Amino acid sequence: MLVPTNVSVNKRSLKILDKMLSEADVLGIKYFKSKIGATIVDCGVEAKAGYAAGLYVAEICLGGLASVSIRLREYDGVTLPVVEEFTDHPVIACMASQYAGWSIRGDGFSALGSGPARALAKKPKKLFEEIGYEDQSDETVIVLEASRFPPESVLKDIADKCGVSPQNLYVIVVPTSSPAGAVQISARIVETGIHRLHVLGFKLDRILQGLGVCPIAPLHPDSTIMMGRTNDALIYAGEVTLTVRHEDDKKLEKLINEAPSCRSSSYGKPFYEIFKEAGFDFYKVDPRIFAPSSLTIFNVMSGKIHRAGRVNIDVLRSSWGLAIT
Q1: Cβ pair 224, 255 in contact under 8 A
Q2: 278: burial class by Cβ within 10 Å (0-12, 13-18, 19+)?
């Protein structure tokens, strides 16, 4: 298993968080102590929190094991801001930290938990057993994609499951309909690709490096429409490149061809429409749609390159209301 078990995603992320909090005024974020002593970091609920804050959130989510940046890119005559990310530790960064694999619920609050805290709570347990990664830390940070702050009971439950005191728990709350939220979602493109391959049966220990590019969705005040826009960025314009070790290029090519979002029966429609047709029930949505638009795979064992899928800017035009004048 190519996992450096001596690397702590919590300790690395907490260093990034310290720098983030020291720049709170510049980043437009706010932070405060809850009644039980947990530190809440507001990245868009009441605070301004722009693109720069989103980059911090993304790198914290990735356990401090990836570099994330923003630049402009042209798509068929349309110039859009995109997130670029790369990591030499894709399994730990994306699956042991960033992956939104912890369902947080309690007292009417609901959110998906991402980031280093998952490595302490081992959420989900089966995934961590497969990865073979453990982390130890007296402090931890979790990222919650939510439009309101979690109640005290939820904070206590998170701290308990992570084995830390509430005073050593840091909770970043970032709404989807915020600049920081849009950035950190687009920065999940490599994880989206790895997760899709994992679902198809690809062994995680064969993945060596990961790179990704994904447009940043324009904001919309309706959270459901905004959720659709962020998904469209990943599904129709998210591009992933992975370096892997695999002994059979024919099997690898067959698997890669099944990975892009275009293999879904729902492909071609804005995600909001797909979600609406499913009665706004994620469990009724074809899971094959939750994939990057394209994947490029470098196989170091053979030197061959495999590619499948393509960017579909036409769907983004429809979803985002893009117009060229």
Answers
A1: no
A2: middle
Q: Sign of the CA dihedral 8, 10, 14, 16?
A: positive
CA distance linking residue 18 with residue 70, whole number of Å = 22
Count of residues making up the chain = 325
Q: Give the H or E element holding residue 261.
A: none
Name the strand (E) or helix (H) holding 51.
Answer: helix 51-61
CB 107 within 8 A of CB 247: no
What does the block give as tokens for 111? 């959110």
Quote helix, strand, coil % in the chain, to nearest 5: 40, 25, 35
Helix (H, G, I), strand (E, B) or coil at 83: strand
Of the candidates 214, 208, 318, the one whose C-alpha atom is nearest the C-alpha of residue 273 is: 318
Separation of first and last alpha carbons in the chain: 53
State the Cα–Cα distance between residues 116 and 158, nearest whole angstrom. 12
Radius of gyration of the chain (CA): 19
> Which residues partner with 32 through β-bridges?
40
DSSP-assigned letters across all residues of 130-194 = HHT-----S-EEEEE--SSPPPHHHHHHHHHHHTS-GGGEEEEE--SSSHHHHHHHHTTHHHHHH
pTM: 0.96
CATH classification (class only), 188-325:
alpha beta
Q: What tens digit of pLDDT does each residue of 181-208 get? A: 999 999 999 999 999 999 999 999 999 9
Structure tokens at 225: 């429409």
Residues 30-59: pLDDT tens digits? 999 999 999 999 999 999 999 999 999 999
Domain range summary for the chain, segments of one domain joined by +: 188-325
What single-letter DSSP state applies at residue 45? S
Q: Sheet harboring 294-299: ordered strands across?
A: 67-75, 78-87, 207-215, 239-244, 294-299, 305-309
